[in-house]
Design brief:
The complex is a heterotrimer of chains A (111), B (671) and C (121). By secondary structure, chain A is α/β, with parallel strands linked by helices. Chain A has 4 helices and 4 strands; from the N terminus they run ββαβαβαα. Chain B has 671 residues and is α+β, with helices and mostly antiparallel strands. Classes of the chains: A alpha/beta (111), B alpha+beta (671), C alpha/beta (121).
Chain lengths: 111, 671, 121
């Protein structure tokens, strides 16, 4: 089925963990992704999620990311998104009619 | 393509109708059997559904009411009665007539269609004109090509993903309708901890400018409208005009919604495809199989030529190749012939109906029992057996089975039994029709045969021979002629039909107890094991299953028998037919000839030939019309060296010989 | 890679029409003639979509849909019912079992393709 590789790494930016998403981040494996995010957000450091190697992202994943950002915001933690200008992330935004809003936009550009 | 699909439907419908018939007959016996009710319902349902798909509207409409009735039977709102079964059988026949009429065979009795429809409707409680419910829902049609703008609010139910619906697909559908601006909203999104990531927390506000009608927009949401919040508002022209460009202006990111669907999702390919389905089968036209059998036949011919050539070369390598080819050809042949084998059961179930209808007509109480329905026979053989079997069963029902009163008087059960059985026996199948009727009066046969000049007063015939007389043309023992079994012209036709299948038929009977008709049919028609013999420069083949043994016939033996064609085989005399003379063969007779002893229906007869070549795989080719009347030859085959050999019709030859012999006044009483 | 659709119907002619239509549109199609056979196939391999008739021997379409939905592999898979009924109660029953949508017989190839595309996105 759909494959999803989650690679949490130490060298996030800046100085926090990095979650590298490879393959398809969709409904079929969304619970795994949620679990990974929960664990990483529990650490007291800024988290970076990198979508550059994702081949497909769907609405469920987008919801999850938004929910994670909301949680981070409320907990006053930093959550950065990378690779959002790549095809997979752009497609899901186009298809679903959502936009990324707010300050994190600037961090996207660095990806 | 269209015609092909119609043909596929017809084929399927014919099959369903034959299953339907047996289900209905079984249902009559077991009215409480819900499985059977389900089968009948499904057959009707499929005929109706498929019929309407492929343009058989008359069939579909007619079947609709029948299906409705059986749906109610399924819900136990209508009981299974004799009347219902009768009505349903008539409906089944009517559908059959409609199908036939579609291929130009016969016409449909419209009055009967209406009558049956009314009778079925009468069974449905509270049946009103269902014209109202059948009517299409009025469609909102766009008036003209005028563009309108709509504001659409779409909030799917949270569980939408779990019903297999991807809301993005719906958005894409809206995009296809016209110029679209879509804004997603995720206001109620919980924090990560409380998020069920498999639920949908999104909703959308869409501005759509389109020349399509509102109905088409509603259609987009047809599968989700019950569970979702959907509002579609027509924006007035004033508001509508700037709507589309305005939407573009306000979009903060230059990501236009009108872009086509997301790139193709690459789900893992399904492995091992449908071959995994153990029950998978394919349907091919019978003609394809026939031509395959022909080809295998030719292959067998070439293969035997190869074997012959190899045998003459004394080349070990060539020999071993020839042997391998022989083995493979044999396997291929068996496999191909096996593909053509079908269970005889479908034919049997047809007879259930026949027996049911005939017993009603005759006022007799008859039960048909069958056994061996899964016995397999060559497809062509099964088809050709149909008419002879119908004839024999009719005969048995009409003449063999007594009226209930007669049976009672004879101390028998009022319900008569006809047992139809198929038994596998070597390379043949034996089909038996047994009844427990009055049996055949053998003295009546005898006197009738004498009266008709078939035998002489003085002739002493065994019971078996007397029963065989029933198959003589124009022979009938029935005192009256009934509409059921006709005038007795059939039995000789039956016998000829069976012989055309290279089979044989026999009757035995005991008075008051019943009659047994036994038919022996070879499993397949196309290729037979045979014995190849030579006479002069010609070659002939005899079916090997009839051959018992081969013995030598010396000139002295011939002289010793004083001109009569009788040979002593293991102590008793066997008549023989000198084929050399029969076929007017040129050349000189060898000093020592061979007699091939064949056994036909228990009687031995010898065929004198110059020499016996050996066993041979014979691919039967029918003779052209010119040779159809050739006495004693049933077909031809091509030998390995390319020459033609004639296939001897052994039983025909024997009959001819018996006729000749019978005309000799002082014939020897043998056996 | 073409999407593979499992088509289930006990009517051979309909199954043939469905398969030809879908194959013509570039989908791969695997056929089954009743719910039980379909369930076994679906367990062994994976399908992007299920198209099933309702009235079938051995296992009906509603049961098939319910059973497949319970399989983690098919939680989000589109499943369409092919049906001669158009009533609401019946649609609700199908939806409750987990059907994505329905296609009312008779349908023509264009309609079939339209609905398949609709649910496959």
């Amino acid at each position: 089925m759909t494959q999803l590789i989650l690679s949490p790494q130490e060298q996030g930016s800046p100085n926090g963990p990095l979650l590298q998403i490879e393959g398809e981040a969709t409904l079929e494996n969304i619970s795994d992704l949620k679990q990974a995010l929960l664990e990483l957000l529990a650490q007291n450091a800024p988290l970076t999620i990198d979508f550059a190697k994702a081949t497909r992202i769907d609405l469920a994943c987008l919801q999850l990311v938004c929910s994670a950002r909301r949680s981070a915001e409320n907990a006053q933690k930093k959550l950065y998104l990378r690779g959002t200008s790549q095809d997979a992330f752009r497609s899901v935004l186009e298809d679903t009619g959502f936009q990324l809003s707010g300050e994190e936009l600037s961090h996207l550009v660095s990806a | 393509m269209q015609e092909q699909q119609k043909e596929a439907f017809r084929e399927e419908a014919y099959e369903l109708l034959s299953e339907l018939e047996s289900s209905l007959l079984e249902l009559e016996e077991n009215p409480e059997d819900q499985d059977l009710v389900g089968q009948v319902f499904r057959a009707m349902h499929t005929i109706k559904g498929s019929g309407s798909m492929f343009g058989f509207d008359d069939i579909s409409a007619f079947t609709h009411d029948v299906e409705t009735v059986f749906d109610l039977v399924r819900d136990q709102k209508i009981p299974v009665t004799n009347n219902l079964v009768n009505l349903s059988l008539s409906a089944r026949d009517q559908i059959l007539a409609m199908l036939d009429a579609g291929t130009g065979q016969g016409t449909v009795d419209e009055v009967q269609t209406r009558r049956l429809t009314e009778q079925f409707r009468a069974l449905i409680p509270g049946q009103e004109s269902d014209a109202a419910t059948m009517e299409e829902e009025p469609q909102t049609k766009p008036d003209g090509k005028q563009e309108c703008s709509y504001r659409i609010w779409f909030k799917p139910c949270a569980e939408i993903f779990l019903s297999g619906t991807n809301p993005v697909a719906l958005l894409n559908e809206l995009r296809d309708l016209g110029s679209c601006h879509i804004r997603g909203v995720m206001d109620d999104l919980p924090e990560l901890e409380g998020l069920n990531p498999e639920l949908c927390y999104s909703s959308w506000e869409i501005k759509l400018t389109t020349d399509r009608g509102r109905g088409e927009i509603e259609d987009v949401f047809i599968f989700v409208e019950d569970e979702s919040e959907i509002h579609i508002d027509l924006l007035d022209a004033h508001e509508a005009a700037p709507a589309a460009p305005a939407a573009k202006d306000t979009a903060p990111l230059p990501l236009q919604s009108e872009q086509p669907q997301s790139p193709g999702r690459s789900k893992a390919p399904a492995e091992n495809k449908s071959s995994a389905n153990a029950e998978a089968s394919i349907r091919v036209p019978a003609s394809k199989l026939d031509s395959m059998v022909d080809l295998v036949g030719e292959l067998v011919t070439i293969q035997s030529r190869l074997s012959q050539t190899a045998a003459g070369r004394e080349d070990a390598e060539l020999m071993s190749i020839a042997e391998e080819v022989e083995r493979l050809t044999g396997e291929l042949r068996d496999n191909i012939l096996n593909i053509r084998m079908l269970p005889i059961g479908s034919t049997f179930s047809k007879f259930k109906r026949l027996v049911r209808d005939l017993s009603q007509e005759l006022g007799k109480n008859i039960e048909l029992k069958t056994s061996g329905a899964d016995t397999e026979l060559d497809k062509t053989v099964i088809e050709k057996l149909n008419d002879p079997l119908i004839h024999l069963i009719r005969n048995s029902l009409d003449h063999g089975i007594e009226t209930p009163e007669e049976r009672k008087a004879a101390g028998k059960s009022e319900v008569a039994t006809v047992h139809l059985a198929a038994i596998h026996s070597g390379d043949s199948v034996i089909i038996e029709i047994n009844d427990d009727g009055r049996g055949i009066n053998i003295d009546a046969i005898r006197s009738k045969a004498i009266e008709k000049g078939l035998i002489a007063q003085s002739d002493e015939l065994s019971d078996k021979e007397l029963f065989q007389l029933l198959f003589a043309p124009g022979f009938s023992t029935a005192k009256t002629i009934s509409s059921v079994s006709g005038r007795g012209v059939g039995m000789d036709v039956v016998k000829r039909a069976i012989e055309a299948l290279r089979g044989s038929i026999e009757i035995s009977s005991s008075r008051g107890e019943g009659t047994r008709v036994s038919i022996r049919i070879p499993l397949t028609l196309a290729i037979i094991e045979s014995l190849l013999v030579g006479i002069g420069n010609s070659k002939y083949v005899l079916p090997l299953n009839l051959v018992e043994e081969c013995i030598e016939l010396s000139r002295e033996d011939v002289e010793r028998s004083h001109g009569r064609s009788l040979a002593k085989v293991r102590g008793h005399l066997v008549p023989y037919i000198p084929l050399r003379e029969h076929f007017d063969t040129e050349g000189t007779r060898p000093d020592i000839e061979q007699i091939v002893i064949a056994n036909i229906n228990g009687s031995q007869v010898g065929f004198v030939v110059d020499h016996v070549v050996g066993e041979h795989q014979t691919v039967i080719k029918s003779l052209g019309p010119i040779y159809r009347d050739a006495q004693g030859v049933s077909g031809a085959t091509i030998l390995g060296d390319g020459t033609v050999a004639l296939i001897l019709d052994v039983s025909e030859l024997m009959k001819g010989a018996m006729r000749d012999e019978a005309s000799v006044p002082d014939r020897a009483a043998c056996c | 890679m073409a999407k593979t659709i499992l088509a289930v119907d006990d009517s051979r002619s309909i199954l043939q029409m469905v398969a030809l239509t879908l194959k013509g549109a570039g989908y791969q199609v695997v056929e089954a003639s009743d719910g039980q056979a379909a369930l076994e196939l679906a367990t062994r391999q994976s399908f992007s979509m299920i198209l099933t008739d309702l009235n079938m021997p051995r296992m009906d379409g509603i049961t098939l849909i319910r059973q497949l939905r319970a399989n983690p592999k098919y939680r989000f898979t589109p499943m369409l019912m092919l049906t001669t009924e158009a009533g609401d109660a019946f649609k609700a029953k199908g939806k409750a079992a987990g059907a994505t949508g329905w296609l009312v017989k008779p349908f023509d190839p264009a309609k079939l393709l339209g609905v398949v595309k609709k649910v496959l996105g």
